[in-house]
Amino acid sequence: MKDIAIYIHEKTEAQQKRPATDGFLQIATCLNLIMEFDYEARTPWEAKEEFAPYFESILKSRKSATIVANGIGAFFAMHTLRDMRIKKAYFISPIVNMENLILNMMSQANASEEELRDKGELSTKFGEKLSWRYLCYAREHPIYWTAPTHILYGKNDDLTSFETICEFANRAGATLTVIKNGKHRFSTAEQMRFLDERIRRYS
What we know:
By secondary structure, the chain is of the alpha/beta class. The protein has helices spanning 11-15, 22-30, 44-59, 72-80, 98-108, 113-119, 132-140, 162-172, 189-202; strands spanning 4-8, 34-37, 65-70, 86-92, 121-123, 129-131, 149-154, 175-179.
């Protein structure tokens, strides 16, 4: 039984209906056997229903899986796959503390916990919908991740702070590579080359 590498996209990649991003193509050149998991989940409880059956079916004929996960795809992967045979994980701009992210968005929207609890959901000017259920779920289901992991992070990531990513990397025993001029989404040719170099180094 051979291993397999699976790419788990960022939410925005699915919204833009791009089945193969530049990042995915770059990764595919580094890891010979790779599939893209085009999931539809938008919440961790939906991901739990969608990710588990998909990976269980893949792992029936594979020794293990390597995952390459981007943004919230990494959050969903950690939430749903921790008990499966994950040989190695490469995370690109991962969301590692959803509670902090939601609280930060609430602060930007000048929304209190009491207001969110009473209304259930709140729309924001920056396009994200805040959910009391999502906040409670994130608090009740903290991330616990032990698979060998390599993280690529942009120093100017506006969703996850440097302190938050460092704390997670230390707790998970993961390697952390920081791109000084990088943002949450890697898109430039220089960033793609850096991504290529790092995956080759750790593969």
